[in-house]
Structure prediction request, 1007 residues.
Amino acid sequence: MMRKTLIELQQISKRYDQPKQASVSIMEDINIKIKEGELVSILGPSGSGKSTLLRIIAGLVPPSQGTVLYNGQEIAGTNPGVGMVFQSFALFPWLTVLENVKLGLENKPLREADKMRKALSVIDMIGLDGFEGAYPKELSGGMRQRVGIGRALVMEPDILLMDEPFSALDVLTAENLKRDLLELWTERKIPTQCIIMVTHSIEEAVYMSDRAIVLSRDPARVISDIPIPMAHWRDKQDLQFTSLVDRIYSILTQREGKTTGQAEKKDNTIEKIPPVPAGALTGFIELIDDLGQQVDLYKLADQLSLKLEDFLPIVEAVEMLQFATVVHGDIGLTEAGRRFANASVLFRKEIFKDQVLEHVPIMEKIIWILQSKSNNKMEGAFFVEIFEKHFGAEEAALQLDIVIDWGRYAELIAYDKKAKVLYLENEAAAAVE
Amino acid sequence: MQLNYFHTGNERRPFGWADILVISLLLSILYAAAKLGSGMQVPLDPDELSSLSLDPKWLPYYAGRSLLRMFIAFAASLLFTFVYGRIAAYNRTAEKFMIPAIDILQSVPVLGFLSATVLAFMALFPGSLLGVEFASIFAIFTSQVWNMTLSYYHSLKTIPRELNEAAAMNQLGGWHRFTKLEAPFSMIGLVWNSMMSFGGGWFFLAASESISVLNQDLHLPGIGTYMALAADDGNIKALIYAILTMVVLIVLVDQFFWRPIVAWSQKFKNEQTEAGEVPTSWVLNLLKRASFVHYLNRKLRRGVHDGFLRLSATSSQVKLPQVPPGIKKIFKWLILLTAAALILRYLYSGILEIAQLSWSELIHVVYLGLLTGLRVVVSTLLAVVWTLPIGVFIGTNPRLSRMVQPVVQVLSSFPANMAFPIFTILYLKFGIPMEIGAIPLMMLGTQWYVLFNVIAGAMAIPSDLKEVTVTLKLTRWQTWKKLILPAVFPFLVTGCITASGGAWNASIVSEIVSWKDQDLQAAGLGTFIAEATTNGNWPEIIWGILVMCLLVVIVNRLVWSRLYALAENKYHMD
Prediction:
């Protein structure tokens, strides 16, 4: 039997238009179909617009191009068949648990008594019996998210959207909530037809969902759509489970510029620097060196208990500087990386300086600009303006910060925070004398 | 654990003493409002005007009338706040001129306009005191409203994105958005600003109840008028009665209105953890104990909810035809054009009026404005000089600040202009010239804002920083220079901005005072406007007000906004 398509995304793209500048494209040509009975995870590096995609499905954010179909109908405004669970719970602090849940029914043509009955039965279902009169501030994080889930479920939506629903919870609480939710879902205790979940945890995606959609970054595209054909409940030690996790890891850690090889990538685009301070890179390289030749990324992330969002940029940065390479989900140090790991503090700076100058075109350009100025100085705002053309206003300032951090560590550039001026390091030395 | 008595009280409670108390209170309020309100429409005839008496037995009635005025003005302010704030927060085009407009209106001296509004409202209700009544209410309204509107607007702008999204996902309509999200989210700030505005409103009440326009003395029955008559009469006993009544009134309003609201509004604090110390109110506790309050609350909620449901069920079948966007646009432009035409017309006639004055007169008014400006500066500086050490002393002493704060609150609410006669007597006795004497009168009402803020600033100094100064063995002077002054600075600037704005306003009543038939006046813009108003000299009124507005706005832009930016950027503690 063919299952009905509930949600269909057709050629969705999203740009942020900025006054006086070229618009920044964050999402391009996304086509996804989601069928009845599916639990789908959306994965991607930080800044890949996963949450924006979810909000486009919800009708909270309009796409710049393309259409969202719900039951074959194009949606206008908020999607009528959708309930949403938020990362920060988004509970109304001045309403009790009961009132928060009832909020989902507020605009339904039901009598007060009926609303009360419905809300109470949902509260019962999500395991908050006895807490009806409590305020969110009296509850633990896990219970708050239960209220958030209850508020979404009370509307009896066809589609349940979840935006990183477990990432604000501690590990044990999250595990418990995941199981309870899966139970409601797999045993059909809720009338929900499909669940779409944004997550940063690959393990979570493989544990819960029937399909994992992987997005790339800058702009977001669907780079992979992986079916997870395993029966619930899944064993995390199972070989099929770990190999799926490994596979998604390796997809996520492939460097976009090299693997995608898009024709439209012009020469004048500058590559973004992953926002990782030099100090963190040093520690990471030392760790890999200690662990030996090749290290499994998935296990490494687990060992560092880092979220994917924080972990991937570090891997990207060491790859960019060619201190390490990633092959099939395993990371290993390069020659330069090994030298760096075993060098003294001063010598490390030398190696770092060489790598940065060779592999980070932004840094090279900045040095060149500073050198060509007679006083070897330049306002930070000048660089921010250049970056804005490539990355957009918000990202530009961040990029400058990280460039300054790397440049300072490499003793290439110095920065006067008060005057917001960059200058060459030898100039800084002269200024002190 | 905190219980929400208003929503979940399903258990039956016996009818108790609390119910009887609350019911009798309600009845008395209803009766008083009806009685006092019926007095509003008194025809305007001289006999009626002179019938106001200094007999203290009339004081409760007068106080009631004044209170009614205050609450009507407050209700109007609240309504205005919700409408204006909402439009400004959600309509980007409107926001661009609505918020700067408030910024300017906020710095405009309200009392300067009093005479103009009195005349306008009198024309609306010819032959009745209702016009004067409205003018008084309007004056109080304009003194309260901007502050509240700005607070509401800022709250709406800072509603967290996810709460907005949750509201959208739950398909909340406009009304539910307001009751469940917007009003609760802005409640804390709005209550605080309302309380401050209401306290400041007493000053304008006292100033606007009895006023002379076009050589005609107009008196509304009220406590401000009683005070004015006492001063005219030179009746010191009546003077003291009035002051005592005023204090009692302020304390009563605080206990029966603001304290319960503040205590109740605590549940709207947008925090995820429980706070330590929570404001309480015995009146609110009483209300919570009364079981019929619960009963009424529950019935009302249910009734209103289901009633609305029935209403929307019948009305939803009728769909209004969509207005085509072209016509909408034309309509929008039409409104804009009409507004522009009206503004231009009045601007033109205003300029024509001013044109009747000679150059030397025009320049003389500017000179008077500078004189008054000097007094405003001196009064603000003097306020800083005495409040800084005392405010810091109080603020760094938690026990003391708990005790002092309610007192300061009453003092700041007390309308300074009601204390003017006392000062006038002293000035007359010791022969102090008004040129200097006006300055303490200005300070009387405005210094409290500085004190409030300094106390708040001193209380906010982190204790670990204080400990650092001790361990570093800094001298007292070094501690002040390195820690206290920088920490208090942002608060001090905020207080000074409010204080100097208040001083400009006060200048209209504090540069010219009288006791019996002796008048004391200082050369200044305040005196100028007050006299022009009495004589009904329109060109002088318009030019005087214009000069005052310009001076205030210029000083704000050149001095205060810069200091404020400095305070925000450099001395802000986070």
Q: What stands out?
A: Chain A is about 45% helix and 20% strand.
